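Risk mitigation, structural track. In case the binding assays with 2-phosphoglycolic acid fail to produce interpretable data, a predicted complex structure has been prepared as a fallback.
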Amino acid sequence: MKSLVFAANWKMNQAPADAALFMRTFVGQYARQTDRRVLFFPPALSLHSVVEAIHDRADLQAGVQNIHWEDSGAFTGEISAGLARGAGARFVLIGHSERRHLFGETEADTAKKVAAALKAGLTPVICVGETLPEREAGETLRVIRRQLRAALEGQEAGVVAGVLIAYEPVWAIGTGRTATPQDAAEAHAALKTELRALGGERSGAVPVLYGGSVNRANVAGLLAVEDVDGVLVGGASLDAEQWLAIVRS
Ligand code: PGA
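Fallback model:
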């Protein structure tokens, strides 16, 4: 049986009080299952509410949605990996498509953020995905391999086994369109091959999550795909009942 990761990306939603209420409902109703971990990526301001709610549950963990690559200093509005770690985060999303496409994050930036995360003891969840024009041009696999290599640029082969990957086709995020299990199978297999090439055989076990309009109706079909090791969920993770249904699937 594979080991699964369910990650909730709340984006710019859930104030501290809402996050606390959500987590009370979730933790009260979700019993630990040995084959899965559940990760929460609240807005940084609500991280404390999540961390407090999960403190005695090793199967539930929290992360931040973004970091700056510097350790500290005059970077108004930014959060370092060390600050996130100190506030209880154990994971960080890096290179989410909204960071890349709305905020101009470059592939070089993702590499600096991965390095900063690893240095501070945060596990990076490296997000990759092609745009619709890239898919239509038959560039999907080339683009996602390039994004993966770029994010891990400069890292020793030995660290590759310690990251997580999320494949999120840009055209599927928040649009209601999901990749078919066939599309996901092809992309995930290509990412696993690339991970082995970068980090050796052990890195073939790096979890590769699928993201993009995942919901309670389509999650089982996606998880049935051999190389899909979990899901990264935005919209459908905001409602505790729907999120419970997803993590129980
Ligand atoms: P979505 O977002 O589930 O709302 O499509 C996924 C993501 O951006 O991580």
